Amino acid sequence: MKTYSLLMIVLCLITVLSCSTESTPTYTLTITASPDEGGVISPNTGSFDEGETVSLQATPAEGWLFSRWEQDLNTTANPINITMDGNYNVVGVFERLWPVDTETEVVDVTNPATGQTWMDRNLGASRAATSMDDEQAYGDLYQWGRAADGHEKRTSGTTTTLSSTDQLGHGNFILAPNDPNDWRSPQNDNLWQGVTGINNPCPAGYRLPTESEWEAERQSWSSNDRNGAFASPLKLPVAGFRLNTSGSPIFDAGISGLFWSGAESGTIARFLGSGTGNASMGSLVRASGFSVRCIKD
Question: By CB neighbour count within 10 A (0-12 exposed, 13-18 middle, 19+ buried), where does 192 fall?
Fold first, then answer.
């Protein structure tokens, strides 16, 4: 019988131990939400052991819906399990639940007096205003709280049928001659608030301004009238408005500018108005068609 030395026994034990403690491979799971404001995905980007099962869950933000997975996944299933057998790069794609303006070029302008950054033109305008009555800078006229569904076009058709939902499925300007003079019945006060607010028509990252944000802009003007509005960094034009009772013709184009805020006030809504002799915040019925200027969130 052979006799083993103590050294040989120790070496054998070390060899067995090193083999038995060999590390399990780990892989990286990289997660991206597109766009960022569309929602959140769990878990976050991280490292996972080979063979580990990871459950991905996409949760859309208010006003968004989950559309699909892209990159190393190609499916609409949600949630979905991944067995880690390599590195994964996964993009969760979200889409807006309602129409937004996609035609207006997004160019930023900042007012140094307020520090706020805005789009340099009205929604629907082809350029920033070169004069206060520049028709190419007038843009669209929105009913308060509605999405960019086509009703905002200055020549859109009209209907007398009120809506019972937030999204209408048509682009007609809704005439509302009767109290409370809203295109929606019953009224919904929770529209347009914030970048993910219901029916926010602004491009991604922008929203309707608050009343206080409009007021701060007005107080920074060189004069409290339409001249001061145009002389400001925002170059606000006098685009006129549409009446809730007729829809046409456009009233006061070239004379006054009326700009919605995201704020409601009882059964009506708040706006900034500028004219020949004065500018101020005011309230008017929600079925009126006013200009929209978006502020960066």
Answer: buried
Summarize the confidence of residues 126-139 as an average pLDDT: 98
Give the pair of three-digit tokens for residue 196: 């993910």
- Phi/psi region, residue 200 (left: phi>0; alpha: psi -120 to 50; beta: rest), is beta
Q: Where are the beta strands (DSSP E) in the chain?
A: 26-34, 39-42, 46-49, 53-60, 64-71, 80-83, 88-96, 108-110, 117-119, 142-143, 158-159, 173-174, 206-207, 257-265, 268-274, 279-285, 289-290, 295-296
Which DSSP symbol is given to 162?
-
Which residue type, as a one-letter code, is found at position 261? S
Cα dihedral 19, 24, 25, 26, rounded to 10, equals -150
In contact, 27 and 6? CB cutoff 8 Å: no
Conformational region of residue 42, where left means phi above 0, alpha means psi within -120 to 50, and beta covers everything else: beta
How many helices and strands in the chain, by DSSP H and E? 3, 18
Tokens of 234: 């925002």
Q: What are phi and psi of 15, to 5 degrees?
A: -65, -45
| Rounded CA separation 60/41 (Å) | 9
Q: Where are the domains of the chain?
A: 26-96, 99-297
What are the tens digits of pLDDT across the range 235-268?
A: 999 999 999 999 999 999 999 999 999 999 999 9
Give the predicted TM-score (pTM) of the model. 0.81
Q: CB 223: neighbour CB atoms within 10 A?
A: 12
Per-residue model confidence as pLDDT tens digits over 159-218: 999 999 999 989 999 999 999 999 999 999 999 999 889 999 999 899 999 999 999 999
How long a stretch of residues is the chain?
Answer: 297
> For residue 3, is pLDDT > 80?
no
Tokens of 243: 């009446």
Position 159, amino acid: T
* Single-letter amino acid, residue 206: Y
